């Protein structure tokens, strides 16, 4: 008999007052009993809408059925048949707009907490995994970028026997999982463990190699790679072009978060990379990155942290859960405000001038367009400004790879079915193709490309 | 890991290291730089490439032992390895064949100047150089420059070698003596490059400078290295590090350079026993 409670089994969280003083994870996960109670809410629908709501089609009812019986290892194997990074996805996927959005239980009450269950299963099996290295077919594939798209593509190809090498520009694999998403939302030791599982499939890694600079795509083919997958992400921060944007005390969210997450500046001086945080911090933008930056600033000791966003609360692009967590932690939301100038004194940020906005007609994105209200300028005293208004793909690779066509936004153009670019045997996926999006969409693209690469290379060897 | 093949002390503050780094050695050009991390916890610091050998896959870096990371690097020895070494980063210097070019290197800035002048010489340009330092012992790479330069001039603060004063004093003298140059390449402390441009700009002698701002990744990701060039914001890591000196907002560069001064002082006091 299913558990007919309309509510999800609640998950323990660190108390907001406590957690703003540390970088430990906010959500604490289910116990075995809690997980089984939540699993019992699943009706095991025959038409499985959740599976089609998942960008990588995890067989959700199947893993939940095993979980109900207490067969956690079996549940884990079912998840990882389609998703190599379940502990990560269980935490950072926007389930509310994917699997859980279409869950039948969601029609009356909460959907099944699929993300929480995925997280539970992955965490439970984290230190008890056996990975077998598949037999090699001696065909070399190069993967550019060790983020979610590249890792997934590499894992799927390695499982099929390909000899995969990931070329990573930074000194750590993981991409945005390592440099972007904060520790309190996604612990880095856990990211490392999930990456290690993929590496154990026999995937080779060359860190500190920037394809486009250290080696070109053409040279990769010269070295015997038969296909190249580009998952180089969207790492280029956007700035607003405001007066005062180069003052001391203005960070891109990328720089701020990279210092703290990848370089562990929160542990200065044990880790020698510094970060400076003031007393009053304004974060410009309303997405997940803005929430991450604001909550990080609070944890670093800022007294007041404000999100400055030009539209209203309804249009905030961040996940509801993130907005909720930010509010709990005392982040102030200065909505319908747009910065017009950053004001300095002796070269340091002193204040920010803003103008009030109101919502007009819907724009191309379908959201109501913010319009400045005349004569409504005001200044707010701040000493740190973090700009989190988005990222675009890095041009380093396309600049040295002429046949690779990109659109006006600098995103690589691919064939939607195969993820193949305008350059034969070169595939791409993730933020490099879509612009900044989600971890799971990048993983979906990596999977799709792996399948297409396999099919193409099989056909080529047949000929 | 990247093995230290050779290490030489050039003076009490400046050291030279040869690192086994195939990817960098095979593709780097004068003007480009690398980013290194000494150990697992280390910070990433940019250093300009001083020389390279494509056959042996080796890259030479020259650094002044000033901050936490350069001190840590200085404690490493031949045969040991450093954790990370990535590049080549930035744009190669846009070197054009001229009749005559003057290089100006201040302190450790003489190191990245050397490969640029060497390349110009190979292209058939006559090169002169002014090397500056606090005293004679701070003058580096004299022998190396000797092999490629027609005329060499020196300036030291205490007058122990060459002119007593700054490289700009020598530059003014050369100009007063009617020496003509098609281009000046100045690499050194920001204040020196600013002073050089202060002289060359009114005379309209094209001047290239090399900027070395604070950065993390070196690939355009953090935006920490933004500089204003002719009123436009550029990222030194991907658009530079070499820029037209006439267009650089040096005051902004100098201000941004000091952003972590307190942290640097703090960690140097507690971090290392040197």
What's the arrangement of strands in the largest beta sheet of chain B? 6-1-2-5-4-3-7
Q: Between the first and last Cα atoms of chain B, what is the distance in angstroms? A: 25 Å
- CATH class label of the largest domain in chain B: Alpha Beta
Major sheet description of chain B: 7 strands, antiparallel
Helix content of chain B: 25-40%
Mean pLDDT of chain A: 95
Helix content of chain A: 25-40%
Radius of gyration of chain B (CA) equals 18 Å
Look up the CATH topology of the largest domain in chain B: Rossmann fold
Identify low-pLDDT runs of chain A.
none
Cα distance spanning the termini of chain A: 56 Å
- The CATH superfamily of the largest domain in chain B bears the name Nucleotide-binding domain of ferredoxin-NADP reductase (FNR) module
Assign an overall shape of chain A: globular
As a percent range, the share of strand residues of chain B is 25-35%
Helix-strand pattern of chain B: EEHEEEHEEEHEHEEHEHEEEHEHH
**Overall SS class of chain B:** alpha/beta
Indicate the low-confidence ranges of chain B by residue numbers.
Answer: none
The value of Rg of chain A in angstroms is 23 Å
Q: Name the beta content range of chain A.
A: 15-25%
Q: What is the multimeric organization of the chains shown?
A: heterodimer
